[in-house]
Amino acid sequence: MKILVCISNVPDTTTKIKFAEGNSSIDPSGIQWVINPWDELSLTRALELKDDASSGVKSVTVAHVGTAGSEPTIRKALAIGADDAIRINSNASDAYYVAAQLSEVIKKEGFDVILCGIESSDFNGSAVGGMISEFLGIPSVSSVSGIKFENGSPVLTREIDGGRESVRVPVPFVAVVQKGIAKEPRIASMRGIMTARTKPVRIYEPSNVENLTEIAGFEKPRPRAACKYIDPENPALLIELLLNEAKVI
Amino acid sequence: MSVLVYTENWEGKFKKLSYELVSYASSVAEILNMKVTALSIGKADEGELKKLGIYGAAKIINVVSQQLTSLDNQAYTKVIADIALKEGSGIIIFSNNMTGKALAPRVSVRLKAGIGSGVSRLPVSLDPFTVYKRAYSGNAFAHVIIKTDIKILTLAQNSFDVVEKPTGAVPESFEIDVEESLIKTTVTDTQKQSGKILLTDADVVVSGGRGMKSPDNWAPLVELAALLNGATACSRPVSDEGWRPHEEHTGQTGKIIAPNLYIAVGISGATQHLAGVSSSKYIAAINTDKDAPIFEAAQYGIVGDAMKVLPKLVDAVKNMRK
Questions:
Q1: Domain for residue B43, yes or no?
Q2: CB < 8 Å from A in window 89-108 of B
Q3: Is pLDDT above 80 for A218?
């Protein structure tokens, strides 16, 4: 069983987002780049499965679409424990483009389980995982909060409105994962950091694919009205304001 | 050309989110001089389907198939894409909920249609076709140009008001055969709570953080939520500690919600938490720390101890209801 974890390189969630001149791209100065949080959890779960000999998972590979600038993020994934990595040497222009590039490489290398995070914390598109499955013509399961193997067959937990269900699916498949898939992201050990330098990163040049969307510009959210403070001795006033002023209760 | 809107049904029923979707689709259709076709997969009775016509659906299709017993992304995608082609749909709209996120990307590839996900307004321009969506987890909004002839949009929940535009459309229900070989997933077990207001559907959410101090202190918070017909939520540390169930975690990596009112109790308001709740129409915060960042996001604030304030809020709501 070979697992592929698709990873995205995103600004650290606590970074203050600023835009460059013209508001068409992010201002990269002072940004700390990290593995997209959901991808990091997927990687953690993939490694847990590999640690458990009964799962039948033999290798965990990470794949990323990005230029050489995102190499530190890939090395971080290798330090956490991925066996090897794939980098498709191109800017990630939109979800369709990224999914098409990853699908081409998946066709070449072959994987049984493809894990994608539910969204990237930068474009919040929630699209790449589902798109890969359709490009490859294989099943996909979304809102996945658990993955395990029973006698070598995958069993997924899927979140549904007000509950969850168990879903069985044959390999190969794409699982789009969310909270619950792993408890805490795994942290790189000193040994992991040392070995990451020598682990293989296969670099592919991008296939000729067009993007279907493009970003015309960004804007910052409108600042909210200043907070109206209510005397803690008289909280009933809050209820009155919510009822008569905001009209939300 | 038509605007196709995928209106999921929950055991044959629609909810507010369905009507928001149809209302949004009708407004988009009006701008483009198109008509709205609503598509629902899975049995729903005629009376329920007719409700979609109240919000502007000119055509209502209900597809039933013996083979489709649970959500299989691959099979549903084929059914939706086939109907979109048959209906000549230029725009296909889904909710940006779990089902929409599961299906829209697949339909996008199948029809080579660009996708604008999590849109929260009507298109900002028609030529080029540009949508407005949340980006950087609520720290920005992006204008995204969709370049393809067919365009897919997923609508952020609670971002568009329900508007009545009755058409009197008569629902068309039909049965279809789906190739068994297309359905690869099997649901073997379902656990579901019923009768509880879902966090993602709730108009009012009362949420507790570490400032609640102990899992034993939740009773007044739960009571306040119940009195306001709302749902309960919590911050990440609280669900990580096991004080409250994981389903209640709101924030960047948990549930992303947009209620009319979010009451944050003992939550400091870290960026990751705000990413999950910043689309709320109103935020009211109760916190002992006057410098907590939650007060920058809130319109109403009480600097005080939750344990003292909550019971008084409960009494105030009870008095108001009298």
A1: yes
A2: 96, 98, 101-108
A3: yes
